[in-house]
Amino acid sequence: MKTWVKIALFIVIFIALSAILAALYYYTLKHTDMSKAKPDFVITATVLQKEFEDNETTASIKYINKIIEVTGNIASIKPVENNYVNISLVTGSDVSSVNCTFPAIADPSQFKPGDAIRLRGECSGFLMDVLLNNCAVIK
Predict the structure, then answer these.
(1) What's the whole-model pTM score?
(2) CA distance 2 to 21
């Protein structure tokens, strides 16, 4: 076999093994436990939504991929696919809210619209609502 063929074969095998190892790493990566994570920001739902509404670019730079602890009142609770639960928080805006997605809540019936709640999650952006993922209720 020619030398350049051996080198090319080695590079292809190396890239394939690297891709397999990277895929396994990301497949087994666990979510951060938000109930124990230190928040980057502590804020009310109204102020958070207002910051995104006033200047989405600045708020995105400030909050996206950061852990945020939010307090507010529950506007609605909706079960979604894969046993996830979405809780929307009141923000004072008729069009927009803070939408928090929970991987699982043992008893979602313990929460009712109008109840005050404090939760922590990772901000993933603003699409008419401020989106917080992987949330956990903070007691």
Answers:
(1) 0.74
(2) 29
